[in-house]
Amino acid sequence: MPVKILSVDDEMDLELLLTQYFRRKIRKGEYEFHFAHNGLEALTLLLKHKDFDIILSDINMPEMDGLTLLTKINEMQNPALKCIMVSAYGDMGNIRQAMNNGAFDFATKPIDLDDLSVTIEKAIEQIDYIRQMQKDSDQLQLIKGDLAVAHEIQQAILPRVFPPFPESASLLDIAASMEAAKDIGGDFYDFFRIDDDRIGLCIADVSGKGIPAAIFMAVSRTFIRATGIRGGNPADCITYSNRLLAKESVNCMFVTVFYAIYNIKTGEMVYTNGGHNPPYILKSNGQVEEMPMPDDPMVGAIDGMEYHESRLQLEKGDTLIMFTDGVNEAMNEQLEEYGDDRFKSILAKLAGQSCQQVIDGVRADVKAFTGEAEQSDDITLLALKRL
């Protein structure tokens, strides 16, 4: 597309000079000149045609002078439209005012056309730069819009109705939350009914950040839920999910997973831990017990792995606290970690509370510790209490 230049001058001979000097660029379609003879005429053209690139305007003109025209152009708020002001050599007061009012550059009469050509080329470079920045900004806004939609979708696939099993509300309490560090996260939690007596529950943390982690998170959740809802034991579920995820993994992505099947009536839990943070058991008396470290590796990293399972008995009043490392590894402005000791300390103070109160209490304590520090990782919690 040619660079569109509007020359505004009440001297008619300038039109001939410009078209003669720039005739090669005009013939090649690089420049396209338009002419107005005062500021009012120029403003009419500018309002009618929004695609001018450069205004070459005299300052002293009848009806509307160049300084007034420059003010009107500023009101259009088009940073890619550049104004080059022209005046007599001795008219430095008006030239200085024009520059202070946002003119790109100036030329003095009689116009040195070689110098004007260099000035126009400089203006074109600035215009190209600004338009590229505007294009990048528009693309960024589109991406932000897409991320906002992705955030809503990601939140929608996580269970958010509590209590989730109202028919068993007298036997168990469940609550969960996931707070992504960015627009979208790589953590997830899930729970679902397997049969009248058993529910499956899972918490997981995908390696990496951003869109790749979010996609891998959705795939991982789908595989684990689709496999677990059939009712097979946790070891078989994670072994099978690992086989599927290892085939889908790109750039060596993986996910740490704690998956369990809980018997609502007996309080017995059978679980498999694939490289995830061991949960805590909060006893009714405030004692906090840490479950054993996992022997099995993260899921999706190594094809052909066989996972194992363990058993746990929850007593009445016990609360199982599952979490991702965004909790205990949260950092404050001094780059100090929240840590396991602080985590267990706040849990002990929350003994006897509902699952939602426990999660809210932990999140509030983490926030108080981190202060104004930027959240560096997703913070996800899932709590189950035997009533």
What attributes characterize this protein structure?
alpha/beta; Phosphatase 2c, domain 1; 2 domains; five-stranded parallel sheet; five-stranded antiparallel sheet; 11 helices
Radius of gyration: 34 Å
| DSSP E strands, number | 15
Q: What's the CATH H-level superfamily name of the largest domain? A: PPM-type phosphatase domain
Give the number of domains: 2
CATH architecture of the largest domain: 4-Layer Sandwich
The helix/strand order is: EHHEHEHEHEHEEEHHEEEEEEHHHE
Coarse structural class = alpha/beta
Number of helices: 11
Lateral strand order in the biggest sheet: 2-1-3-4-5
Q: Which percent range describes the beta-strand content?
A: 15-25%
Q: Give the CATH class of the largest domain.
A: Alpha Beta
Shape: elongated
What is the residue-averaged pLDDT?
93
Separation of termini? 73 Å
Low-confidence stretches: none
- The CATH topology label of the largest domain is Phosphatase 2c, domain 1
Sheet with the most strands, sense and barrel status:
5 strands, parallel
